[in-house]
Every structure is written in C-alpha cells, then in structure tokens.
Amino acid sequence: MALTVSAGDLETLRFCESDEAKSIVQNIAVILATAKGTAPGEREFGVDMSFLDLPLPAAKVRMIAAVREAVETFEPRVRVTGVTFDRRGEAAGRLVPRVEVELA
C-alpha cells in the first residue's frame, strides 16, 4: 500500500489510533511538523532543520535527505519512496514536503 503524507495531514490528532494506515499517516505528519531538538525527552526526534536559510535549490536537496532519514528512523513500518514539494509553498518561499511511502 502506498501513502502520501504532508505535515498538513495533522489536522486532528487521535491517540491510540486503531487503523494502521491512519496511525502511520498521523505519525509521519508529526515527524514532519517537529524540528529536531524540540521534543522534550527525545531531542533526536523530528526533522533536522539545518537547511534553513539556504538558497531554495540547496535547501530542497538537504530537506529531502533530512525528511527521508527522520521518517525511516522514527516510523519503521514504512519505506520512503519519494519526497516532493507543494508548488504553492515554493512560490511563497516555503518548502512544504509531501512524502510518499510504502508499508514495509
């Protein structure tokens, strides 16, 4: 099963989600919305944001690597198959990643 997730998919947070696909989508959205170093008790959790303030082309490449690493580290039930960006965000100078995953 293939899924596509962005940080915007974290509209409603449900603890103890019983549906596995919804649980995975929610977990990935939380990972994408969390900057590494900001989660109390788990400073390694989240996406490394060291690419901030780089020119957009360089930031995209660094963000793809950071997103892949974070998702595959903290959501072992999936394998990242691609990372793309929302074009509307790019027009405003923001990188909004969309992560494509397959269940492992």
In brief, what are we looking at here?
By secondary structure, the chain is α+β, with helices and mostly antiparallel strands. The chain is 37% helix and 19% strand. Strands 1-3-2 form a 3-stranded antiparallel beta sheet.
Describe the structure.
The protein has helices spanning 20-33, 56-74, 87-91, and strands spanning 2-6, 78-85, 97-103. By secondary structure, the chain is α+β, with helices and mostly antiparallel strands. A three-stranded antiparallel sheet has the order 1-3-2. Helix 1 packs across helix 2 (56-74). The termini are close together.
Helix-strand pattern, N to C? EHHEHE
Percent in strands: 15-25%
Strand order of the largest sheet: 1-3-2
Distance between the termini: 9 Å
| Discrete helix count | 3
Helix content class: 25-40%
Largest sheet composition: 3 strands, antiparallel
Q: Count the strands?
A: 3
Average pLDDT number: 90
| Structural class label | alpha+beta
Overall 3D shape: globular
Rg measurement, Å: 13 Å
Uncertain runs are none
Show the helix and strand layout.
Elements (H helix, E strand, L loop, with lengths): L1 E5 L13 H14 L22 H19 L3 E8 L1 H5 L5 E7 L1
Antiparallel strand pairs: 1-3, 2-3
Helix pairs in contact: 1-2
